Amino acid sequence: MPDLSSAESVLKQYFGYDSFRPLQGEIIQSVLDKKDNLVLMPTGGGKSICFQVPALVLPGICVVVSPLIALMKDQVESLRSNGIEAAYINSSQSNDVQLSVEQQALQGELKLLYVSPEKLLSQHFFTIMKNVPLNLIAIDEAHCISAWGHDFRPEYTKLNFLKSSFPEVPIIALTATADKTTRKDIVQQLQLKAPEIFVASFDRPNLSLNVYPGKDRFKIILRLIQSKPNSSGIIYCLSRKSTEELSRKLKAEGISAAHYHAAMSPDQRAKVQEAFIRDDIPVICATIAFGMGIDKSNVRWVIHYNMPKNMEGYYQEIGRAGRDGLPSNTLLFYSFRDVMVLQGFVEDSEQKEVQLAKLQRMQHYAEAPTCRRRILLSYFGEQQDEDCGNCDVCKNPPTVFDGTVLTQKALSGILRAKEQVGSTMLIDILRGSGKRELLDKGYHNLKTYGAGRDVSWVDWQQYLLQMLNQGFFEPDYEEGGLLKVTDSGRQVLFEGKKVDLVKVEEIAKRAEEIQQKAKSKPKKQIVREELFESLRTLRLDLAKKADVPPYVIFNDNTLNEMCLHKPTTEEEMKDISGVGARKYQLYGHLFIDAIVRFLKKKNEEGEKVSGSTYKLTYEYYKEGLSAEEIAEKRNLSPTTIYSHFANLYENGQDIDLHRYVPQDTLNSIEKALEITGESKQLKPIYDYLKEEVPYHQIRMALSILKKSQ
Ligand code: ADP
Ligand code: ZN
Q1: Is the pLDDT of residue 372 over 80?
Q2: Most C-beta atoms within 10 A of its C-beta, which of 122, 188, 252, 556?
Q3: CA–CA gap between residue 13 and residue 636 (Å, rounded)
Q4: What is the reported pLDDT for 65?
Q5: What average pLDDT does this structure show over 279-289?
Q6: Lowest mean pLDDT segment, chosen from 202-206, 207-211, 385-389, 551-555
Q7: Is 47 in the pocket of ligand 1 (CB under 6 A)?
Q8: What is the average per-residue pLDDT within 504-531?
């Protein structure tokens, strides 16, 4: 029976990865042991590897059932670009294409076959499955099987025939979302036999979690985008109209953006999605309709222009960032108005109680003065013992001030207006506005009129939100959101109960500081980003030519590693994570060329790039330049270049040192070496040879002798 070490070599050979991520190894071992498995892993956790690797290790073919037809093509392209024989069948293809894929399967030319549930359920496909050596059945997006899940697909409930028809073939069911009920459902419906259940942590430490007050949103967004030019991101808005408005405003600032919402034609939507996946349009302003079934690994940031309805949605949406595991930014704006709007939506829904409770949890998260990740994970049933250090609260714990008087002003305003005002009117009263409606109602005669003039309109919104969250008043929905003071609010007003509030200016300032920090970058980083840009451009060109999304060529992580290590040889390139044998063969030399070009250009501009000095010398050497010429080009001494030669030679590069050290010189140095017994310092040998042999020859001779031993 194959073991994990053969799985590891498949991982390196085909995918170019050095090691398994948490749980992948265990899961694969269990599949190789022919057990049934249920795998729960967050988006981007690396589920696919769990069935793709066993499919390659075991003889035969793996059938992958997936409801996301749009994704199949990308997944299969990704596999093929790694030199893996994969194909898909679904109703979007012509009969001819389907037939030829079936032929390939029957002739043993495929290792992985993706299929839609509809197709899988056909009698015809059943015959094919009976006639190929099945090694594994993978059920992707397995939560679709459960009516409890959020994405129920009736076809999935008919998959129980798999176990009874193919009792010998292990099944692996995978999903990113499944509560306990859904889990049980999956196991039962698929009739899994004593399945192993793997639950990976839902933590995504590479996502930074930030919540800012909904103030100056556009300015902050603009700065964030400008600090990460060309990086892909999604901005989720509450309404269709605001997606269009926002994308228009961004375009006016010279940013390549597009909008996306459910009211667009399928054609338009597909176009926008495709442009995003292919890195043609980096910024998408969208309603939550966008993102389902997008398998793009290099989404670098996700912004919620408005607060989401619940934590599930929020987590799923931010989860679209950073699937490649690289640091990615998430940012949620929240405001009093959004909360009101969302509460209004919920009002008409059937499950009002549940929805309101969920909204409240979301609000609690946005308002929290404690580590956000801990709140998020505890919501999903995972307790963390330590703060994360990668959320805005951890980075900048808020300080509170005594907000008792401020709160009293607001509460008194509500009561004096006989609890007949909503938040907008309340703020107008507090700020002493001269609006017609206010004057008509005589609110300018109230004692609290103008009592909160010193606080700006938007700041009042933020403070009211904090007060609402602390339960001092609540909106009455049956009366169109008029504010009612609660008992706890009365305690503040009449019994002097103390109230802590977080300063709005401080939150805003923190937001600014975080943005500023992103601006001042160390030199090394600037160089790396420049190289990244040129590799990215190369990737984009190649992707266009091959008609695949850019990450199918190499993902961001792989490009980053290239920028860090600057591989210029086959060996170095194959050491980069994500560069498997096939990818090396197809693209390796192109990327090496680009890196070499970059290093040379930097050298010509007189700029030193760390970790590149030997590489540069070697490149010029290969061009046929002499040591003196290289020295001049590089503004170094010839002696230094010779010592580079020696180093390169010792490290196995193809440098002909003998050319610089005549045989008889070599012989005398060898003798000197024996007598002085010195193999590190050059001076004793130099002296022994009566200062007749130059240092650089001694240096190179020592390398030759060292290697020949
Ligand atoms: P999921 O299906 O769970 O959302 P994927 O299978 O698409 O996640 O994997 C997410 C990303 O992580 C992909 O780019 C994948 O190539 C990468 N990945 C998976 N396993 C590893 C690993 N062991 N080492 C490095 N990268 C990995
Ligand atoms: Zn934290």
Answers
A1: yes
A2: 556
A3: 40
A4: 95
A5: 93
A6: 385-389
A7: yes
A8: 69
DSSP state of 477: G
Q: Which of 20, 117, 114 lies closest to 75, judged by CA?
A: 114
Helix 504-519 with 217-227: angle, nearest 10 deg: 20
Ligand nearest 386 Cα, by number? Answer: 2
For residue 48 and ligand 1, the question of a CB distance below 6 A is answered with yes
Q: Out of 17, 49, 177, give the residue to mutate to test ligand 1, the one with the largest number of ligand atoms within 8 Å of its CB.
A: 49
Helices (H) and strands (E) in the chain, counts: 35, 17
Nearest of 103, 161, 162, 158 to residue 134 by alpha carbon? 162
CA of 516 to the centre of ligand 2 (A): 20
- Residue 168 and residue 165: Cα distance in Å, rounded? 9
Tokens standing for 262? Answer: 């459910």
State mean pLDDT over 248-266: 94
CA triple 48-49-50, angle to 5 deg: 90
HSE, CB side, 13 Å, CA atoms: give it for residue 228: 20
With CA atoms as reference, report the closest residue to 365 among 322, 314, 402, 401.
314
The amino acid sitting at 441 is K
Nearest Cα residue to 110 out of 56, 32, 48, 172: 56
CA separation for the pair 707, 709 (Å, rounded):
5
The per-residue pLDDT for 509 is: 67
Strands (E) across 423-546 are located at 473-476, 482-485, 500-502
pTM as predicted: 0.71
Query: Which amino acid makes up residue 311?
Result: M
* One-letter identity of residue 426: L
- CA proximity to 555, closest of 87, 224, 81: 81
Instruction: State the amino acid at position 64 in one-letter form.
Output: V
Count the residues in the chain.
Answer: 709
How many angstroms separate the CA atoms of 707 and 701, rounded? 10
